[in-house]
Specification:
The complex is a heterodimer of chains A (107) and B (183).
Chain A: H1 9-25, H2 33-49, H3 55-73, H4 78-99
Helix pairs in contact in A: 1-2, 2-3, 3-4
Chain B: H1 3-11, H2 25-36, E1 47-52, H3 55-63, E2 74-81, H4 82-87, H5 96-114, E3 118-122, H6 127-134, E4 140-149, E5 162-163, E6 166-167
Antiparallel strand pairs in B: 1-2, 2-4, 3-4, 5-6
Classes of the chains: A mainly alpha (107), B alpha+beta (183).
Chain lengths: 107, 183
């Protein structure tokens, strides 16, 4: 598990700026763009930390590339967009389950 | 209109993934020149174009533009000059300044495509942040960016056409009604 900071100061500033500016532009943009902006922010973070994480997290980051790109592509199709994000969320949740050793726990 | 012109219109796409290949100065100037020939209301010149090529400025503009998926080699920012609008006696409710932004944008995008250069419009950006980064005077309102660069061979993000939120195949017939509407 990586314990040190994985972002450079410039990278952190870039992500911070994107989030602050998005908070403003979203007041003018269509409301469903908000979801896309958050996904873009997640992709920016993913691109910054790729190669600086544990092998397990690296696998998660690599596995999410196709799904997040597909979600961005189908943003205009609300149902398909929600479905692609559901798949992405499930993938992240499965990663969390394994990372916290929950898969071996039984009630 | 020649067949070539129609072909340029029909094959132009918004390019959301650009290569690192630099954009030639000559091509950038030709794209800027095309905007001078765009149809504008009353043939009045109430806009300013800000051309940006400096890598640091491009990076900062991208940081304050959530709608910019591209990493462009150049950006042309179209600004409305409100001092000029006032001096040309346009009324306050006049839509001309905004309509002209669209015609200038489209003219530049078609010129870019004719030169083999990819382009994409961006409106989702912080106007105040852009004003600070480019030191834009108060009478100019940054309104739309035309991003320019060479299209990457893969990984473009095609947008599905949609009508009222529904994915739909769009034809000119589906967009057109003829003569009077029925009562």
């Amino acid at each position: 598990m990586a314990e040190k900071m994985m972002l450079t100061e410039d990278q952190a500033i870039e992500l911070f700026t994107f989030l602050v500016v998005s908070a403003r532009t979203q007041l003018d943009d269509p409301h469903h763009y908000a979801s896309m902006r958050l996904l873009t922010a997640a992709e920016i973070l993913r691109d910054f930390i790729t190669g600086h994480t544990s092998p397990e997290t690296q696998k998660l980051l690599e596995a999410t590339v196709d799904k997040s790109e597909r979600a961005q592509i189908i943003m205009n199709d609300t149902e398909a967009f929600a479905g692609a994000l559901d798949e992405l969320c499930a993938m992240v949740a499965q990663f969390l389950v394994e990372r916290n050793g929950l898969q071996e726990r039984v009630p | 209109m020649s067949r070539d012109t129609l072909n340029v219109i029909k094959t132009r796409r918004v390019i959301r993934n650009m290569t690192d290949q630099p954009l030639e100065q000559e091509k950038l100037e030709k794209i800027l020149e095309s905007a001078r020939w765009a149809p504008v209301g009353g043939n009045q010149r109430i806009h300013r174009f800000v051309a940006v090529q400096d890598p640091t400025l491009l990076r900062l503009l991208r940081m304050v533009s959530p709608g910019m998926f591209q990493k462009p080699q150049a950006i042309i920012l179209i600004c409305i000059d409100w001092d000029a609008v006032e001096s040309e006696n346009f009324s306050e409710i006049e839509k001309t300044p905004y309509i002209d932004v669209g015609s200038q944008m489209q003219t530049m995008m078609l010129a870019a495509h004719a030169l083999g250069v990819g382009s994409g419009p961006v409106t989702s950006f912080s106007r105040e942040a852009v004003r600070v980064i480019l030191n834009i005077p108060v009478n100019l309102e940054p309104y739309l960016m035309v991003t320019l660069g060479y299209a990457a061979p893969t990984k473009q993000l095609p947008m599905q056409a949609s009508v009222r939120g529904k994915k739909k195949k769009v034809t000119w017939q589906s967009l057109t009604d003829w003569e009077r509407y029925k009562s």
